[in-house]
Structures are given as structure tokens and as C-alpha cells.
TrEMBL record:
Protein name per UniProt: tRNA modification GTPase
PROSITE patterns: EF_HAND_1
Origin species: Aestuariibaculum suncheonense
Lineage: Bacteria, Pseudomonadati, Bacteroidota, Flavobacteriia, Flavobacteriales
Amino acid sequence: MAQISFEEGYFIKDSGQKTECLIKNNDWKSNPREFQYRLVDSDKTNSISIRELKEFGVYNTSKYIKSEVNIDKSTDDTNKLTDNKEPEFEINEVFLRVLVEGKISLYEYTNGNSQRFFYGSENKEIQPLVYKRYKLSSNKVTTNSSYKKQLWDALRCDGKPLDGVQDVSYNRKELVDLFKKYNACVNSGYIEFYKKRNKVTTSLNIRSGINSTALEIYRAAQSFKNVDFGTKLSLRLGAEVEFLLPFNANKWAVISEIAYFKYSGDEELDTAARGAKIDFNSIEIPIGVRHYFYLSNNSSLFLNASIIFNLSSSEILYENADSLTIQQSNSLAFGLGYRHKRYALEFRNGLKRTVVPHFESSLGTMSLIFGYTLF
């Protein structure tokens, strides 16, 4: 499992002073405006921002340069597109990520879900490659693909436009390949900083443990059915699929689990109902997100937040009254855990949920879960 670490790098201040250091490589999904670093002979962590720098990089991985560029602020949300085909430029001072550095270089700026590409050479200002989706009519969306004309004019080899310019898509991989092809064609040495992100990593985990579950129901109009079954301990058996996301150094994951547990109770009542009994069988399907805090190469802390879909089938049986049906209802759960290599331990708190219609009922579960990663 990858983790965020301090890696060999450098930064150059506006004054031109270059400092060798160790940079906290966050594998940034969005272009950063600041970062943390340590001097080579120090354990002290410092922060430095775009206000002081003109360039920084992590050796053999990434390079960023400060530039004042036109950034298209147009939305790419299909539901919010307008009929304006022209980009909505704003001048911003940002760190551009260098993808290909050569006679003509390719740059990228990402902010959230917005991804823009730029190009430039030593003798010219960095320019945006124009691409914008807009509405042609109420039910038709088209694109302003001016970037193809820009590349047609700029990327010329032996006096001719570079082959493939008109077919290149506005995405990182195809643009990187095109700029590499151009710089090779004009015999310009180039450096490729772009590397393909790892794909989503999938793992299967056994997730078994102990549940502490409490159930209580109350209704003033039928007080003879009021019952508190108390807190019971039971085993839970489960399996989890984890999808580790390929950005931010694998700190985020989507999790999906299926688990089974049983809750049983038998209470005597001082009412006309005389006694109540429950055998509650539940299949839970938590779906949520997990965030890792890496401590070393082999260990980490993590936090979970999940919505739990409950598939249950049970009744509360009374000795001298009609039974009550336990309904299926969803709930939220939050967990805190520790992972070491293939082993994990998690404490999870499931928020109370209503399980009996028309009654003030609450079913709450706290779990101690032991995990083992199969692959």
C-alpha cells in the first residue's frame, strides 16, 4: 500500500535561490498552492507557498512552475452548460504541472474536477489550449475544440503540421504522446514528467468480530408492549471489498461490506403481555469511504464513514399479545481502526435506528471488528 512520504526534491525562490530538500509528496490531485518540506539535515517540517516560489519539483516524479495564465472558469457540468462557446478566462497565478518539457512544453492545471492544459516555449508566453463544451440547442451539446487549430499551427515538423493533431483528444495521455512525438520529430531533447496513475487497487478482507447490541421499544398507547431487551453480545461474520483510489498517495478508499449477526433476547414483563422474545437475524451491507493516516510502510490508522443497508427478518413475540414486526431500516456508522500489514482492528459505532413502526424504538450496535486481507 503506497503512502505519503518525504522525497528528494528542490524548490527555487523568486530570487533564483535553489534549495535541495525533502518534499512531502502528496501525489496532488489538484495543483497545490503550498507544500511541506524538510531540509536534508533536519527533521523540522516547514511550509512554503506559491507567494515565495517560482518552481519546485520531486526528482524523477513531478515538476511545477509558477505562471500567470488565463484559466477557463467555464463549467463542464452538463446541467449547467450555456450557449456561450467562448471560454470564460480569468487571469490567475498558479503552479502549472509540467507534463512534457522540450522545445514546446505541455502543462496541466487541475482544480477539483476541472482539468485544463497549456502549452508554451522558451520564447513565448504559456497559452491555454482551448476546449469547452456548450449547448447548441436545448437538447444538444457540442464542443469548441480550438485546441486542435492551436496545435496545428504550433506543432510543425519539417514545415508541416504534425501527423495526428486533428485526431488528438483533450486528455492527458493523448496530449502527452503528441508533445513527445513533436519534440522527437524536431530533434529536441525532452523530459516527460507525466506518469500514468496506478489503477484502482482492489482487496478482499475478512471482517469478523463482536457486536454489542441494544434494543428498546416504547409506546404510551400500548405500554403493555414496552420492553427493554438490554445489551447483548454476539458474533458478527463479514467480508469487505476495498477499492483503494489512485490519487493522494492512496489515502482514500471506497468500501463495501456484507456482514451477518444475530440478536436474541427473552424478557419477562409486568404487564398483560407477560413476556417478550426476539430472535433478530440481520444481514448488513455497509457502503462508505475510508481515509488512511500512514504511520510507516506497514502500519496506518484509518477512519470510516458508512451508510448501512439492513436486510432483516424478525418479530418480537409476546406471550399474551400480538407480535410486532421488525422493519428493514438503514443507518449510519463511523469507525476508527488500526492496520498492520494484512491485519486490522476497528471500533465501529452504528447510530441508533428505528426498527418497529409506530413505536419509539431504538436499535444501536457497537462493534469490535478484526480484519485480515486475503489479497
